[in-house]
Amino acid sequence: MKKRTASGNQITEGIIWKQLLLFFFPIVLGTFFQQLYNTADAIVVGRFVGKEALAAVGGSTGQIINLVVGFFVGLSSGATVVIAQFFGAKDEQNLSKSLHSAIAFSIVGGIVMSILGILLSPAILRLMNTPENVMADSTLYLRVYFGGILFVFLYNIGSGILRAVGDSKRPLYFLIICCFLNIFLDLLLVVVFHMGVAGVALGTLISQAVSAVLIIVTLCRSKEMYHLTLREIRFYRAPLLSLLRIGIPAGFQSVMYNLANVTIQSALNAFGTDAMAAWTAFGKIDSLFWMISGAFGTSVTTFVGQNYGAGKYDRIRKSVKVSLGMFFGTAIAISLIMITLGQYMFYLFTTDDTVIEIGMQILRLIVPAYATFVFIEIYSGALRAMGDVFIPMLMTCGGVCILRILWILVVVPMNSSIQTIMFSYPISWILTSILFFIYFHRKQGKLPAR
User: Fold this and answer.
1) Which DSSP category does 369 fall into?
2) What b/e readout covers 228-254, taking b as 16+ CB neighbours within 10 angstroms?
3) Which site from 25, 137, 183, 414 is most exposed, i.e. has the minimal number of CB atoms within 10 Å?
4) What is the pTM of this model?
5) Which keywords are on file for this protein (predicted)?
6) 99: pLDDT strictly greater than 70
């Protein structure tokens, strides 16, 4: 079997800023297309069905999907870190066992989540105070989505494996294909066949299935260390434990993030359909920042993970500094663009003046604080790549998640307004950034000088 040599691995040898950018851009473009085919659902139903349908595919349903998928993506980050470290150390045997354990985990997890999601969707939506006028469509959308969640899990774990070994281009190509497929299916099923919410749900499911097949076929055909053999898919004890040791805290952190967002969504639901639709539309605009944030986080995790496995600690320090500088500049630029063009962005989703007005109130409160999140993303990604996940999880859960929930439960009842709800975001980001800055620099000081 062909192996990569140290000289061929630019992540551990090349110019840091250049390699970060070469790795970053395919990830951010891939995330853009992933968001685009999710956003296509909202645009199509918002423009061709109505604001109730827009609320149904992006309000409570969006928060539930983010909760479940986010937990699995957090778990799969354990596999990404472990595989990146083994790849950097050129440990082919343990890399292979980790890869096959990760695929097995995604299959079992996808089947379990599919069953639970289909059965529990109505009960969860009621717990979130979902208005009755969108309840039926929200339930339908969720059940169809959960019916195909195995494909979501397989794609995410497979693309994570490719990125862990430095391949960020092929996941991008697959997402481009599936993005345009999803847009075509949305228009066909909603505009031509008038299937409404069911049409966009079915279009998303088919597109995700295609992306999962493409990623698995790529791994199976690989001649590199990360070759997937279907008959070897099973749980290997040691790699699985390593995956879970890193992945469970990350998954729990994601759950806490999304539980906080579910709490915020429930509070917003009390303000009616207009507020739900505005929050849904803003969430799609807001995703521009989060896809870039996630790409920076994935990049620094891969770089730090491979260099940590190779014992190149000076490159770890440099890659973190470079990532911070690039992300901070990007965050400022995105904030300025959104504040300037935000109103025009909302017109993509709705022409309802009330929805746009509420959306702009939300945007003006949250967007200027993006730069404060830079430290959380970069430092947590670097720490995770070095296997340090427990303390960062506690800081994130306490500083971001629990603080937001307490804010909704304690502060919002004293001044019940959309603005008060939104203030929970910048306040929690600022506090958590300070905690990460202090902790990371103490941790970095303990690394060997080399």
Assistant:
1) G
2) beeeebeebeebbebbbebbbbbbbbb
3) 414
4) 0.74
5) Cell membrane, Membrane, Transmembrane, Transmembrane helix, Transport
6) yes
